[in-house]
Amino acid sequence: MKNKTIAKTAKTSLLSVLLFSSISWANNPQPNQTTTNPIITVNGLTFSDLNRNGKLDKYEDYRLSAQDRIQDLINQMTDEEKASMLIGIGMPGFDWAKMQFATGKDNAKVPGSAGGTTAIYRLGIPSIIVSDGPAGLRIKPIREEDSNTYYATAFPVGTALASTWNEALINSVGKAMGNEVREYGVDVLLGPGMNIHRNPLCGRNFEYYSEDPLLTGKIAAAMVNGVQSNGVGTSVKHFAANNQERNRMGVNAHVSERALREIYLRGFEITVKEAQPWTVMSSYNFLNGTYTSARKDLLTTVLRDEWGFKGLVMTDWFGGYNGFGAIRDKDAVSDVVKQLKAGNDLLMPGLPAQKNAIVTNIKNSTLSKEDIDINLTRVLELVMRSPAMSNYEYSNKPNLKENAQVTRDAAAEGVVLLKNEGNVLPFTSKSAPLAVFGITSYDFISGGTGSGDVNEAYSISLIEGLTNSGFSIDAELEGLYKPFMIAQKEIETKRREKEGLLATPKRLQELELNLEIVTQKAKSSELALITIGRNAGEGDDRKVDEDFNLAQDEINLINTVSTAFHAQGKKVVVVLNIGGVIETASWKDKVDAILLPWQPGQEGGNSVADVFSGKVTPSGKLTMTFPVKYEDAAATKNWIGTPAENPTDVTYEEGIYIGYRYFNTFNVKPSYEFGFGLSYTTFDISEIKLSSNTFTDKMEVTVTIKNTGTVAGKEVVQLYLSAPSKNIDKPSSELKAFGKTNLLQAGESQLIRLSLNPKDLASFIASKNAWIAEAGEYKVAIGTSSLDMKQTASFSLANELLVEKTNSSFAADTQFSDLKH
Fold first, then answer.
1. Is residue 29 predicted with pLDDT exceeding 80?
2. From CA 615, how far away is CA 618, in angstroms rounded?
3. Are 550 and 594 in contact (CB under 8 A)?
4. Apex CA 380: angle with CA 171 and CA 382, to 5°?
5. Is residue 386 scored above 90 in pLDDT?
6. End-to-end CA distance of the chain, in Å?
7. Looking at the predicted structure, is the pLDDT value of residue 11 above 60?
8. What angle do CA 561, 565, 566 make, to 5 degrees?
9. pLDDT tens per residue across span 199-229
10. Is 316 one of the annotated active-site residues of the chain?
11. Which residues pair with 704 in a beta bridge?
12. Are the CB atoms for 228 and 234 separated by under 8 Å?
C-alpha cells in the first residue's frame, strides 16, 4: 500500500500553468464562516434574520416562492454586490508565486477546493464551495496546525465506471461520492466529465465515458442522480466539443450542426433531461467561431429552451480568455457582456477585472437590469438550495471505509476481459509464487492527473491486491522491481520539477531483465503477470509513439516473458492499467489472457485480484473501439487541427462517424470492437419480442438471457438499431438501449426489457431544423457487442415522423462537408 501521509502536490489543472503571480482577489470576500443568525418569530413561526435588521424581509420568508424571495434579495443588492455574485472568489489558498495550492495554513472554508461564489455578508448570503472532480472529491488532505486528515476516496476513472454498463451501480458510486462532498463541506462537485472520445489520444479521455452519446448520457445521469441525492450539486462538463487538450483555450472547433446534435450534445441532453444537474460548465474552446461561454444558441436556446435545463451555467476556469498569455495582464478581461447575455451566469474562478467590467456595463446600461436579474436569479437559486445556505453542520467524517468497498466493487465490475485463451482465468492455484513483471505492477496507477486526480489516503498496487487474496509473489522479482521503481519515480519527479507544472506524466521505463532470470522464473512460477501502465492528464494530449503504441522496452518484456513461459508450458496474463485506448493488435496473440481494469481507483489492486481469482466474474464491456492501428480511427485524419504545434482550428470532417459508427459502417476491422468483453461463464440470448410490428409512439423490446455456464455472472444486453437511409446518410447501426442482468447463477434466466422512443428512430436534419424519423423498415439487433448480434427483429414506420422541431443554431463559420458513406 502506498501510504500518503504527506499531502500530494496538488495537480492544479490549468491553474498550474499560469506564469504570473500578480493577480489578487483581496477585494473579494473570503468564503464565509458559519455564523448563527438572529431569529425572528412571526405567528409562532421562526425565521433567520439574515441581514440582522430586526424585521422579516421577503427573501427571509420561506413561506414565499423562491422567485419572490430571490427578486427581493436582488432588489436589495448594490451594483458592486451584483457583479461580485456573477464572478467567483478566485482560488483561496492558491500560492501564485509557487503555482500550487499552498502547503502552509489555508484559511479557505475547504482547503484545496477550486473556488466558490461570493458571500454577501450584509445580506447573510454565504459563499458556496465548488471542488473537483470526476473520480472523487479533490481537496487538501493535510492541513497546518490540524492533526486530522481529510482524504477522499479515489473512485475508478470514467472509462472504468462506464465499462460497467450498470446504471444502478454508477448511481451507488455517485451516492458515495456525494457523501464525501457533503461531509467535507463542499456544495458542488465539478463533474462528471462527459465529452465524447473523438480520438484515442485526447489527454482527458480517462475522465470521460465513451465514444457513444447514449452510453455517455445514461452513465452521467446515473452519476448525477447519485451525487445529488445527498443534497449537493454537480457540474457536468465540458459543454461542448472540448475533445482535445492542445490549445483548448484557443482552438476553434468547426462542427456541423448534425454532428453536434447527434454526437457531441446528445449525451448532455440525456443527462439534463434525466437528472437535472445543478450546474453545467461551459468549455474553453471556440465553437464555429465563438467561445462556447458566449454562445447564446448553446447556453440558452438549446440548453434551456429546447432541453429544459433549470440550473446555472459556469465557465471553466478562466474560460473566455484566449490562452494563458491573455490572463497575464491584470487588466485583461473576457467578454463578460457577451458571456452573461449568452446565459453563462457565473464566471470562474473570477477575476477583479471581470468584476470591474460588469459594474461598468451595469452602470452604462450595456448590461440591462433584465440581463443581470436572469444571471443573478440562477446564482441565487444555486445558493439557496446549497448545504451552505442551510448552515449544514458537515462532519468532516464521510464514510470512507464504506466508500472504499463501493469503489472496490465498482472497479471489479468495470474490468474488461479482452482475452482468455484456454480459460487460463480465473486462476486459483496458490502452490507456487506468481512471477509479476512490469514496473506498474508495483506502483499501480489509481487515476489520472489534473482535475481528475484525488488525494486519497492509499492506493492498493497489483502485488498488494494479489497478496491480500492469498497469492504469493516471487520475492526475487519483487526485490528487483521495487528499488528500480523507486529510482524511476525519482527521475520522473525531477523531470516534472525541471519542466514545471505544465509537465504531464510520462510512463516509467521498464526494467530490463535478462533471459536467464526470466527462464528461471518460468520454471519456478505457475504463471506470469505483466502490467502495462499509462497515465495522462489535463493540459496535453497523448502521443502515438510509446503511448498509444507500446515502447520497445515493453515489447521486449512481453516477448521475453512469453517466449520463456510458453517454453515451460506456463501461461502469461497481461494487465492493462491504462486510462484510454492503446494498440493491442501487434502483441495480443503472444499472451494467453488480457485483463483491462483501466485506472481502477484506490482499491484497484484488490479489484483486479477479485477478478483474477474468480471471486468476481468479469462483466465489463468496452465503451470505445480499440483500433488495429491508430490511423484506422476516422478522426485521426484531421487530428489535432492546424497548425499541429498550437492548433487554432480543428474541423470535425468525420461528422457523425465517430468510433464504432465509422468502423462498422465502413467495414474497418478493429482489434476489439465497441461493446466487447468476455466472461468466465456463457450466456444464451433468446426469445426476442417486439411490442408491435409497427411503431407509433413507443416500442418495447424484450429478450431472455440465460446463464448457460458453470459460474455466476452478469451480461450486458446491447440494442442496436438500423434505420432506413433513403433521405439522409446514416451509420449501419447505432446503440439505442442497453441493460445489464442481475448476477445470474448457473442455469438462471432473466427477462430484460428495453424501450425505444421516437427520438431513437430519428436523425437530425439541419435543413429542416428538426429530428425526423424516416418511413420504412427498422431492424433491431440485440448483441453482446457492436459486432456480435444474437437476436434480430424488425418493425416498420408507416409515415415519416417529425419527432422534434428545433431552433436554427450553430451556423458554420467555415465551409466543409461531413464524411458520408
1. no
2. 10
3. no
4. 5
5. yes
6. 51
7. no
8. 115
9. 999 999 999 999 999 999 999 999 999 999 9
10. yes
11. 686, 751
12. yes
φ, ψ of residue 262 in degrees (nearest 5): -85, -30
Which amino acid is located at 500 in the chain? G
Angle, helices 167-183 vs 400-414, to 10°: value is 150
pTM for the structure as a whole: 0.96
Residue type, 136: G
Q: What percent of the chain has pLDDT over 70?
A: 94
**DSSP code of 155?**
P
Alpha helix stretches (DSSP H) within 667-750: none
Q: What is the pLDDT of residue 326?
A: 81
For 50, 127, 128, 318, the CA distances from 386, given in Å and listed in that order, are: 16, 10, 7, 24
Output b/e per residue, 618-650; b: 16+ Cβ within 10 A: bbbbbbbbbbbebebbbbbebbbbeeeeebebb
Contact 590, 567 (CB under 8 A): no
Distance CA 799, CA 809 (A): 27
- In the numeric block, the cell 507544472 is attached to 501
pLDDT of residue 671 exceeding 50:
yes
Average pLDDT over residues 449-459: 92
Reported as type and span, the H/E element at residue 612 is helix 604-612
C-alpha cell at 805: 422541431
Is residue 566 reached through a cis peptide bond, with omega within 30 degrees of 0 on the bond before it? Answer: no
Phi/psi-derived region of residue 638, left when phi > 0, alpha when psi is between -120 and 50, beta in every other case:
alpha
Q: What is the four-CA torsion angle of 97, 103, 108, 113, rounded to 10 degrees?
A: 90
Which pLDDT does position 101 carry in this prediction? 60
Residue 667 · residue 632 · CB < 8 Å = no
Q: Is the omega angle on the peptide bond into residue 240 within 30 degrees of 0, that is, cis? A: yes
How far apart are the C-alpha atoms of 543 and 539, rounded to whole Å?
13
**Cα separation of 15 and 350, whole Å?**
13
C-alpha cell at 445: 496507477
pLDDT of residue 35: 59
Cis peptide upstream of residue 349 (ω within 30 degrees of 0): yes
CA dist 666 and 663 (Å) reads: 6
From the candidates 57, 106, 132, 316, give the one annotated as an active-site residue.
Answer: 316
Whether residue 156 has a cis bond before it, omega within 30° of 0: no
Residues in the chain: 821
**Which tens digits make up the pLDDT trace of 457-484?**
999 999 999 999 999 999 999 999 999 9
Contact at 8 Å (CB) between 97 and 21?
yes
Bridge partners (DSSP) listed for residue 193 = 237
Cell of 253: 472547433
The per-residue pLDDT of the chain, averaged, comes to 93
Answer for the pair 136, 153: CB distance below 8 angstroms, yes or no.
yes
Euclidean distance between CA atoms 429 and 676, whole angstroms: 28
Q: What are the tens digits of pLDDT across the range 277-299?
A: 999 999 999 999 999 999 999 99
Q: Following DSSP, what letter does each residue of 44-104 receive, concatenated? A: TEEEE-TT-SSS--GGG-TTS-HHHHHHHHHHT--HHHHHHHTBB---TTEETTTTEE-SS
Question: Nearest CA to 609 among 411, 771, 820?
Answer: 411
What is the average pLDDT across 526-547?
96
- Flag whether pLDDT at 14 surpasses 50: no
Helices (H), 415-461: none
